[in-house]
Design goal:
413 residues; alpha/beta; 8-stranded mixed beta sheet; binds fe (ii) ion
Length: 413
């Protein structure tokens, strides 16, 4: 038995004590009401949250940022895809595992315990997928890792891409991916979305599609995802990632689609730092922000999560796996600056991400649930966001798996 005392819980007044027995959270009571336990820890009023959920990253790409000679000249998504296509065929499973593990460690040091990663399967040997399948198994006691069979170069733009996606599902990928805006034509893009949903039905998997990751207002594959999710009944098992073009749609079209998204029940993932850097590249001023309509989606009651997308790869040279930075960027870029919006900021990287991963039942800090939580170096949600607070403690199945000391001012002004 262990007690974590004086925790500030999200969206609840006062302080609480958390009693952990083995791998479970058995009681959460107002501070001072629980009998002493053999092991105790005083959290001193710090904010406790369910662990962060990384809902969109590419672990097979991390730490592959190019040298100055090799880096993309245009800074665009499409040039980065071409660069990656040149590089990926020479990678070994061991090398991918080593880099992916560095990425996982970096995220877990920042409070992540759940990761959904896209894995490029447009490579005949499926080397990256095999590497990530091994890591999923090796890490399963410390990390929930969900793998997406992601055809980076398309179902049809890459010869045999559709068959490679299916083979990845047979090998054990959890989610069906896609990238319709990269296919040659609108028709092939639509066909790829239909194929993704057909595969999800056939293999009983989730769907998460890179969708309309472009400023082109004519890119409207999000309607295909909503329609397939609605008519197949897959609903909230489906996710549209990026949907940057929605920021460029006419209000009339976007307004119409909001009710369709709601009806379909799909999730959205936005990657604020990546989207604002990769998009707007063809604009003179005024320059678009590249973000989907996060504030309008949230107001319409549609699930949105924020994610990292890249850590130092051909698409984005920065990124440190610290999701609170995505909340900071996302709230700014989406004009979500009311006290209520800021106070709910952590939702984007906690419960909203859990809904996207479809793990709500086992997720969250609650009595009877797994003892999985993190402790932030802040006394409230507002302070956590304002200071972009670090994570001091990560508890997984009742065990402390990561601990940091708070940063200390040694000499003041
Ligand atoms: Fe991505």
């Amino acid at each position: 038995m262990k007690i974590f005392r004086n925790a500030r819980l999200r969206k609840q007044p006062g302080l609480h004590d958390i009693l952990v027995d083995g791998e479970k959270t058995v009681r959460i009571a107002p501070a001072g009401r629980l009998e002493p336990a053999p092991e105790e820890r005083d959290l001193q009023g710090r904010l406790v949250s369910a662990p962060y959920v990384e809902s969109h990253i590419h672990l097979d790409y991390v730490y592959t940022a190019m040298t100055p000679e090799e880096e993309t000249k245009s800074g665009t998504l499409f040039e980065a895809i071409d660069r990656w296509a040149d590089a990926k065929n020479s990678l070994s499973k061991e090398e991918i595992k080593e880099r992916a593990m560095r990425g996982i460690r970096q995220e877990m040091r920042n409070g992540v315990q759940y990761i959904r990663t896209h894995v490029d399967v447009t490579e005949p040997k499926l080397t990256a997928l095999k590497a990530l399948l091994e890591l999923r198994e090796e890490m399963k006691d410390r990390l929930y890792l969900q793998l997406i069979a992601f055809p980076q170069e398309g179902y049809y733009a890459y010869p045999g891409g559709d068959e490679l996606v299916e083979e990845a599902l047979r090998l054990g990928a959890d989610v069906v991916g896609g990238i319709p805006h990269y296919e040659f034509t609108r028709e092939l893009g639509e066909k790829s979305v239909k194929k993704a949903f057909a595969l999800a039905e056939k293999y009983d998997r989730l769907v998460d599609i890179h969708c309309d990751e472009t400023d082109d207002p004519q890119s409207r594959f999000v309607e295909c995802i909503a329609s397939e999710a609605y008519y197949t009944g897959l609903g909230s098992r489906a996710t549209a990632s990026h949907t940057c073009a929605m920021g460029s749609y006419s209000n009339a079209y976007a307004f119409k689609m909001m009710s369709k998204f709601k009806k379909a029940g799909i999730n959205f993932v936005s990657c604020p730092t990546e989207n604002c850097c990769l998009q707007g590249r063809y604009d003179a001023y005024p320059r678009r922000r590249g973000l989907t309509r996060v504030d309008e989606l949230v107001k319409a009651g549609i699930n949105v999560s924020f994610a990292q997308d890249s850590i130092s790869d051909p698409w984005y040279p920065l990124g440190d796996g610290n999701l609170i930075h995505q909340v900071d960027f996302g709230l700014h870029l989406a004009h979500m600056m009311s006290l209520e919006e800021i106070s709910c900021g952590l939702d984007f990287i906690t419960e909203n991400g859990a809904r996207t991963l479809h793990i709500e039942e086992s997720y969250g800090l609650k009595e009877g649930g797994p003892a999985n939580f993190i402790v932030l170096d802040a006394g409230s949600e507002m302070e956590a966001i304002r200071k972009r607070a670090g994570v001091l403690l990560s508890v997984r199945n009742g065990e402390i798996i990561m601990e940091k000391t708070p940063s200390k001012l040694v000499r003041d002004i």
